[in-house]
Amino acid sequence: PTSTVMTTLAMFLTFLTSLLLLSAEICGDWSFLHSVYGFILTVPELTPNMGIFWYFFTEMFDHFRVFFVWTFQLNLLLYVAPLSIKFPTHPLLLSTTMIGLIAVFKSYPSTGDVGLFLSLLPLFSHLLPFMKQTFIILCMLLATTVLAPIAWQLWIYNNSANANYYFAINLVYSTAQIFLITDLLFGQVKRQFYMTHGFSLLEKEDKEGQRPILQLK
Question: What is the CA 71 to chain-centroid distance, rounded?
Fold first, then answer.
């Protein structure tokens, strides 16, 4: 309902404004906005991390930087509208999906971002039978968990590798998260289809209450 949406938005804006005013009062000015939000949006620090931003912007020419910063940051917003249209009655699934996408496309991701997303997955245990890539995803996450610290040690401390090794592992790590998100959404769509049409075409009744008969010739 429209009233519920407006009430939620009003409460969100009220609490956000209150927290911003309180933060400005504690800090003495509004400079904290750039340190908190501006730092994430402008990506000034390119120290290697678990994300994909640092490698792209290290290799990029400076005169293309602003364009690609906007492209990378707006990329996350592109998923909000279509997912909201597709799953209007599943806000928990939508929120969990957006948390997972933020963990992938955030400028400075951490294990906490991925941990929050993974901790919410047991809420959708009913979708597990409909997911198809669970084994592949687990193997990818396990492999990157083992190889990431090894590549970091070889690159940063032993100086026997380069950034490409570590970034390749980051790509596999991000790809595994994308596979997990898409597989979760596919499981929801598949479950909805089965709930509507049944698990077999032979179980679906017509307008007269008759089920189709399979004839083998």
Answer: 17
Rounded Cα gap, residues 87 and 111, in angstroms: 27
Q: Report which listed range, 143-147, 159-163, 203-207, is most confident.
A: 143-147
Using CA atoms, how far apart are residues 174 and 140, in angstroms rounded to an integer? 10
Amino acid at 186: F
* pTM (two decimals): 0.82
82-103 pLDDT, tens digit per residue, is: 999 999 889 899 999 999 999 9
Residue with tokens 């909000």: 80
Half-sphere exposure of 165 (CA within 13 A, CB side): 14
Q: CA-to-CA distance for 87 and 81, rounded, in angstroms?
A: 10
Nearest Cα to 108, choosing from 51, 70, 65? 51
Output DSSP code: residue 108. Answer: S
Let me know if 120 is exposed, middle or buried by CB neighbors in 10 A (0-12, 13-18, 19+). middle
* Maximal CA-CA distance, the chain: 84
| Paired tokens of 48 | 């290697």
Alpha helices in the chain (DSSP H): 2-27, 32-33, 39-42, 53-59, 65-77, 80-86, 91-105, 111-120, 134-152, 163-197
Phi, psi of 82 (to 5 degrees): -65, -40
Distance CA 32, CA 214 (A): 69
